[in-house]
Amino acid sequence: MTTHANSLDAALRERARRVVPGGMWGHLHADKLPANYPQFFSRAEGCRLWDVDGRAYLDFMCSWGPNLLGHHHPEVEAAAERQARLGDCMNGPAQTMVELAELMVDTVAHADWAQLQKNGTDATTTCVTIARAATTRRKVLVARGAYHGAVPWCSPSLLGITAEDRAHIMFYDYNNAESLREAAAQAGDDLACIIASAFRHDLGRDQELPSRAFAETARAICDARGAALILDEVRAGFRLHLAGSWEPFGVKPDLAAWSKALANGYPLAAVTGRDWLKEAAAQIFVTGSFWCGAVPMAAAIATLTVLRRGGVIEHLAAMGEKLRVGISDLARRHEVGLRQSGPAQMPMVLFDDDADFRKGELFCRTALAKGVYFHPRHNMFLCAAHGEAEIEEALRAADAGLQAVAEHVRATT
Ligand code: PMP
Q: How close is the Cα of 73 to the center of ligand 1, in Å?
């Protein structure tokens, strides 16, 4: 809850509680964030956000992923505005659909085709449907604790969901080739697909990059069994490797789900796939009233065009590394134990002996008071607008946050 009782944010929360169930849905509910975190925002620019009370933040959530090039990137905005003047939601798609699908096929290594949608959940769910349609099998292998969206087959909550909705979902442990083999053996002749995130980024635990052995085992099982390997790129896509997150291993999925960063904040998702799944993708019934929107597609073409010129992912990684090294140095100086895991461009900072995330929340609250928006238990994101000066600014706030944690530890031990 906010402590700014007279703020516009507090007034909006009160009004929202009356007309919006719970005041807000899901993990974006400010009650799930540390105290003082705002619920409502008024504007965004580059890597900065302003809340409705006019407080400014240097942001490390990047809209939970979509903000990749910085808010209001000039090329993306110009492309979106140009298309908006022509038309957005029409009776069918604009030319942008074909141009974007061609660009994705040219950019994403495994892709023989692309299908465009709206949300990440649309894309992951469509991948599963295509795999089942193509194989005429039912079992879907999912990593325990992974997030693939908010519909019955994969929602993290079981409320309102029936056992039948999950009847053919089976679990394995990420990065554990043996557990994958066991789950595949249990699925027997009914194995339709294996779905895996680009890397392990489960809420509230250390991130893990995939091991080569795990990625290769997933590929080998699918090849041997005629099943589809689905890579969930919704969160990591275009931040690790432009052609696909498992490209460094040379492991190509059969289907991949994309969204978040694809159109730099405009609502868009995509499924990419290999030829053997193209007919099934054409036959299943998928659609949405807004899936043809031409403006997000124009934004995505501009986003991919910028990315293909190169340098963005390298910049994110370099700035993420600078932040990571800086936080490590500060933590040592303050004698605070913490862990940073996963790719540097998607930072995760978790404190030792902090099962209830109290240290993490104190760190974040203190940094927020210094104008820097971190998250205590979800991975964070860098965007291209984070430069050296912004990382130094973030480290000054992290210094204050770590000092607060160090004082808290001293006071409680
Ligand atoms: N898969 C992953 C890995 C995600 O991170 C998310 C969103 N956090 C989704 C799927 C679902 O995407 P959306 O919220 O756009 O439906």
A: 23
Q: Are residues 35 and 56 in the same domain?
A: yes
Are residue 136 and residue 254 in the same domain, yes or no? yes
Domains held by the chain: number: 2
- Among 231, 232, 41, 199, residue whose Cα is nearest residue 119: 232
Task: Name all residues whose Cβ lies below 6 A of ligand 1.
Answer: 119-121, 124, 147-149, 197, 232, 234-235, 259
Same domain assignment for residues 174 and 96: yes
Residue 105 tokens read as 């096929």
Q: Concatenate the DSSP letters of all residues of 189-238 into one string.
A: GGEEEEEEESSB--TTS--BPPPHHHHHHHHHHHHHHTPEEEEE-TTTTT
Q: 308, 343, 377: which is the final residue of a domain?
A: 308
Assess contact for 260 and 245: CB atoms under 8 A. no
Query: Same domain for 169 and 155?
Result: yes
| Residue of 68, 121, 157, 208 with the most ligand 1 atoms within 8 Å of its CB, for mutation | 121
Same domain, 175 and 285: yes
User: What rounded mean pLDDT belongs to the chain?
Assistant: 97
**Cα of 262 from ligand 1 centre, angstroms:** 13
Give the sign of the dihedral formed by CA 285, CA 289, CA 295, CA 296.
negative
Judge whether 3 lies within some domain: no
Whether residue 304 sits in one domain with residue 323: no
The pLDDT of residue 413 is 85
pLDDT at res. 3: 52
Mention every residue, 6+ apart, whose C-beta is less than 8 A from residue 24. 16, 30, 31, 39
Asked, for residue 34, whether it belongs to a domain, the answer is yes
pLDDT in tens, 8-45: 999 999 999 999 999 999 888 999 999 899 999 999 99
Average pLDDT, stretch 128-137? Answer: 98
Q: DSSP assignment, residue 377?
A: S
Q: Which of 246, 287, 290 is nearest to 268 (CA)?
A: 290
100 and 210 both lie in a single domain: yes
Q: How far apart are CA 127 and CA 228, in angstroms?
A: 9
